[in-house]
Design goal:
404 residues, mainly alpha, Substrate Binding Domain Of Dnak, Chain:A, Domain 2, four-stranded antiparallel β-sheet
């Protein structure tokens, strides 16, 4: 135990256990360790938000470092500087004495410097017969040397957070632009769909974007916008496919009718088909399956489905579909109901629907009947998974923020 390395402040300034802990950690600096003082200072500047420091405190720290004569902070040298308040104020851009003392206290509280007070509270150095400093009283810069790696890591984390913020903001801008222009095109060209509800959802999400401060909050907003974008694209894609299918059916019927207008039969046909009667072309029994939503978004909207996967985690669509099969059995959904959903929605979206049903199981009397209803509405083009996923996503978002 290195009790000799712990010093208490002069006068009425209190001692804290946090200060004791910090001083003990500083006492264990690796022998021979050195670091460029201005590199450490730059790291502290970049990590000032995490350290709880303001610009004035960093100006004071800069001034303290300027009183250290060497370029490198070194373990084997004296790391105590002892300028007067007047000298510090001048090198701190002439700040007032009260402000200087407040920011010195902030630097101590942040663990970037230690007070090494003399018996009377004055700052000075005592030299020996050989001219070297035997004892110095003032501000100890050793914490900067001890925490140089930690400060560099904090600076890196701040830079990474800034990069994430920039990337998320760019993607949010592009996604909201896509949604806005697609809605405008759909309304102007008379495409069917609940565009007012989508517009309202877009406005609500944009309002949350303006309040988002962290990368996790922006990521949640981006996920909501991505769901909304997928909803718009899927709605338009389904309509275009239905229009193409209807057009092809009309062309096929027209072609069959034309191919029979000049039939000259010499023998009496034995059946209606042999008479060349037009073959009845049946329309598709189901809507074209829409593209599946991003797996990560699905799992954030429907976290319970992971409990039914092997190992408790889902990383691929096949694992989601396998878990959905387990949930189907657990909820008592008949194989035929689930098979119909797979044929109408597509296997991936049927698994997503099953995950949504699981999340809302406490509010659904008959999961099988509910799934059949969703399937019938999907077949008629009256339902898509986007709004349901978005509602579940928003429901779970406050819980994720609390646990983060």
């Amino acid at each position: 135990m290195q009790t000799g390395n712990v010093t208490t402040p002069f006068g009425r300034r209190p001692m804290t256990l946090a200060s004791v802990k910090s001083q003990l950690a500083t006492a264990n600096i690796k022998a021979g360790k050195t670091v460029d003082k201005w590199k450490v200072y730059r790291s502290a500047c970049e990590a000032r938000g995490m350290l709880g420091l303001r610009d004035r405190a960093l100006s004071v720290l800069n001034a303290l470092l300027s009183f250290y004569p060497e370029q490198d902070l070194s373990e084997d040298s004296n790391l105590v500087v002892f300028p007067s308040n007047a000298q510090l104020a001048i090198r701190s851009n002439g700040i007032a004495g009260t402000t200087l003392r407040e920011n010195l206290a902030l630097l101590v509280q942040a663990g970037l410097i230690h007070r090494n007070d003399s018996p009377n509270g004055k700052r000075y150095a005592r030299k020996g017969n050989d001219g070297r400093i035997e004892a110095a009283y003032g501000f100890n810069l050793a914490p900067l040397l001890a925490r140089s790696e930690e400060l560099a890591l904090m600076a890196h984390q701040v830079a990474e957070e800034s990069r994430k913020l920039r990337v998320f903001k760019e993607r949010i801008t592009i996604t909201r632009r896509n949604i806005r222009k697609l809605i405008t095109a759909a309304v102007e060209e008379g495409a069917s769909g609940n565009w007012q509800a989508i517009e309202n959802a877009l406005v609500a999400t944009i309002a949350r974007v303006k309040l988002a401060k962290t990368s996790s909050e922006l990521e949640a907003c981006l996920d909501e916008l991505s769901l909304l974008n997928d909803e718009v694209v899927n709605t338009l894609e389904s309509q275009l496919k239905r229009q193409k299918s209807d057009t092809n059916d009309d062309e096929i019927r027209h072609h069959i009718q034309n191919s029979n207008t000049e039939s000259n039969l010499e023998l009496e046909p034995s059946s209606r088909n042999e008479q060349g009667e037009p073959t009845v072309v049946k329309p598709r029994g189901s809507a074209e399956p829409v593209k599946a939503f991003p797996l990560g978004v699905v799992l954030r909207a429907c976290p319970q489905i992971s409990d039914y996967a092997t190992g408790g985690t889902i990383s691929h669509w096949r694992e989601l579909m396998a878990a959905a099969a387990v949930v189907r059995t657990m909820l008592g959904v008949s194989p035929s109901a689930y098979q119909d959903a797979c044929e109408i929605m597509g296997p991936e979206n049927a698994a997503v629907a099953m995950a949504c049903v699981l999340e809302r199981a406490g509010h659904i009397n008959s999961p099988g009947g509910y799934l059949r209803d969703l399937t019938r509405r999907t077949e008629r083009g009256e339902f898509s998974l986007g709004p349901m996923l978005m509602a579940l996503f928003r429901m779970h978002e406050p819980q994720r923020r609390q646990s983060a």
